[in-house]
Amino acid sequence: MNIRIRYSVITVRLDVSRPNRYLPSLAVLSAISVLAVMLFPTMVSAGALPSYDRVRILEPARQLQSAVLLDANGQQSGFDRLLGKVTFVFFGFTQCPDICPLTMQRFRELHESGLVDPDDVVFVLISVDGERDTPDAMKRYLAGYSPDFIGLTGDPKEVKKLAAQFRAPFYKGNEVGAAPQGYTVAHSPQVYIVDATGALRAEFYNASMEAMAGIAKALVAEQSAIGTDTDAIN
User: Fold this and answer.
1) Domains detected in the chain
2) Per-residue pLDDT tens over the stretch 214-230
């Protein structure tokens, strides 16, 4: 009698009437199993996110490492303080003349639209101009949009470490005006979204509010499902 066993992508035929003949093969398969676990560790599979125009879904998700920055109250705050929330992130600065005000206005509209739950979704501005964007300057700037918004600033070298993980380069640009600190900062224009586990999941390139809300709600639902599964196991 032949028994057909499928082991991953390896197919083996065992003749149970002659078991000794296949003992070495079984040992090899066991070794392969152990090796596979070592070489290909189990990954937390992220659910498929909905597709929208001007949205780039990152597959696989990019797990982020925290960086020590300052919040608008001048307190040290690592990016990991946002774990447990779905977070929209934008790298900008308070003296930005164009893209930053437009993006912050979009954040305010989405925050006030009712399309996302403020208990689950937060909005963060990370300054790329730590020389001028003190915690107090960040607080004043964000007050013009929403008291719920989070501002993070700090040494540009520290910010660059975090920005590099987002693939969000920035650099000090040309001098503007006669003031000693009159300069611009060139930076990436896209908005990012980070899930509740601290993984970067998508980038938005002037996407609609509906697209941003759709991705955010999908990530909230994903986290809720993970929490439900964990509760069931416990």
Assistant:
1) 2-39 (no CATH), 55-233 (3.40.30.10)
2) 999 999 999 999 874 43
